[in-house]
Design a protein that fits this description.
The structure holds two protein chains of two kinds. By secondary structure, chain A is an alpha/beta fold. Chain A has twelve helices and 14 strands. Chain B has a single domain, classed as MetI-like fold, CATH 1.10.3720.10. Classes of the chains: A alpha/beta, B mainly alpha.
Chain lengths: ~325, ~230
Amino acid sequence: MIRIDNIGKTYRTPQGEFHALRDIDLEIARGEIFGIIGRSGAGKSTLLRIVNLLERPTQGRVLIEDQNVTAFEGEALRRLRQRIGFVFQHFNLLNSRTVYDNVRLPLRVAGELSSADQKRRVGEVLELVGLTDQARKYPRQLSGGQRQRVGIARALANRPSVLLCDEATSALDPETTQAILRLLLDINQQLGLTIVLITHGMDVIRAIADQVAILDQGHLVESGKVLDVFLNPRHATTRSLLADIGLESENGLTSASASGARVVRLTYQGETAELPVLSQLARESGVDFSILLGSVGHLKGTRYGQLTLEIKPPDEAGFQRLLASLSGRGVHFEVLR
Amino acid sequence: MDAVMNALANFEYWPEIGTGTLDTLIMTGVALLFTVLIGLPLGVTLFLTGPQHRSPSARVARLQATVYTALSFIVNVLRSVPFLILLILLIPTTRWIVGTSLGVEGSIPPLVIGIAPFFARLVETLLREVDHGVFEACRSMGATTRQTIFWALFPEALPGLLSAITVTAIALIGYSAMSGVIGGGGLGDLAVRYGYQRFNTTVMIVTVAILVVLVQLVQMLGDHFVRRLSHR
């Protein structure tokens, strides 16, 4: 659907060249929610804005449905942007216009629908975001969450194939954030819309993303399925971002555990996560263990868990038996010490 | 008090005052119309070629900078010449445009030339103050510059634009009185001819009182519309 091919962006500043992005390659599949995460200044906003060419890359190209859109200019570029919805952190609504007129604006810009059809379409998208009864209000009369719903409705008005979200929930309180994320997930599932979102919070990624890419100082340091990245973060930035939401890695813990003890990390997902693995294991093997670190939860409806255990087995054979019985239950494990 | 009442009772210049007021209203009204017609596009051009809106293409950016610098210079020159001197300087130009430099017609060109640059600067500032996010949103939905200006920037800046028009109208009332010095007609002309040259203080005072009332009315009208159109 979208291919980001060797994208780089360099700004010329009085202090010399500043590389906002370097050699970024990403492939975003149709119907996917693709999260791009990084600390502020990592270049994620620039990358998103390059997708609809609000900013021009200084290197590389962006392909949308196999078309090299970086070559687009003028009318072709405007037509392309009409097919890409953009949701802003600070909503960017017209305060002088009603909700209805705000959502209708992109339809007027595209100029493809008759007045009656525009009216109908505005009604449809307002219903989709749950704001039918607020159509006559002005943005200033709405809450932050409602304003963002208007922003999303506006982005959806022209039936885009892609929705780009620039920190769409960063200006909202946690509860509203959850509601907006649910809305995005709904839209993704109902309309099969591809969503690219950028955020600085792993909780947003955990809630709705299928794929994640981690940016650090303009470099793409890691990318993959959210589950894989969450369970096996390879890069320090990823681990630190995970630590922000309480999903820490075991670095340091391993060496801090008692001597003679073994440290094993268990990873399980799907059905395995529903089984009482630990208690069964303890009963059968008679081995004691304590949990050093753990996280369990849902990633887009799939249950997953990761536990780091400190185990004090009576002997090596007992330890091997324990590992064998873990394998028997479909639990993926890794012996850390 | 009695002296004032007597003076007003014996006041014989009401017909002149009536004509003068009407002339002032016509000068101000017509000049305001042309000021908006010229100043608004000028202000938009200043905004679009200004430092905040330079194109990423170096060629276009250079063109923008040239246009901005030139317009900005002309605007600054016109604004820095005191209006009374501008009036005199523009006499030949005025003759060329309307055929005379006297009376109501003769006052309108210098009024417009004197005040349109001021109004253009107000427009430029107002557009700059519109949240940049609105501009971004329009770009992201594929709007043309024209669509962005007419469907987003003008509506957003409308209360401010009305305030600017009010301020400009009041300044015009003041300037139109000044044009009386070179025989421009209207209340200013009366004040100069009767009040200054013939020492008729009553005419002077009545003229000033009417000007004060006019300014008040314009301001109240402007405020009323601004309030009705603000959704903040």
